[in-house]
Specification:
This protein has 128 residues and is an alpha/beta fold. Helices cover 33% and strands 25% of the residues. It has 5 helices and 7 strands. The longest helix is centred in the middle third of the chain and has 13 residues. It is elongated and about 60 Å long.
Amino acid sequence: MFRFARQSGGAIRVTSAQGQGSEFVLFVPAAEQQAPTPAANACRARAPLTGVHALLVDDEPELLQVYGAWLRTQGMVIDVEPSFDGALKRLRDPARPAIELMITDVFCATATVSTWSRRPSRRNHDCR
C-alpha cells in the first residue's frame, strides 16, 4: 500500500490503538479533468456490451462460471474454454461466430500469455 501511495504521488496515514485495531487512510492526488478523446467517446458509445461476442479462457472452472455469469449480465455473448488448445480450436472454427474479445488468465496451466501472442488466429485477427 505504501508503494502504491508513493508511486501515485500520494501518502498514507496509519493510526493504531491497542485492542481497537488500525486505520489506514490512503491519499492520492486528484486527476486533472481532460477533454475526452474521440477514441474515448467511441468506447463510451459502445459501453453497453450487449451482443459483444467474447471468449473466456481459464483453467479454473469456478472462475469461468463467475466471470462468465457476470459478463452475461452485461449483455455479452460468452463462450468459455478451460484450455489453451480448446480456445485455439474455438477461434479457428469457421462454423462458429467470430470472437470480438478474448479474456484469458495471465497464466493457464497449458499456456502463458507469450504463448498466445506467438499463435494468433487468422480468422479472428481483429480480436482485442
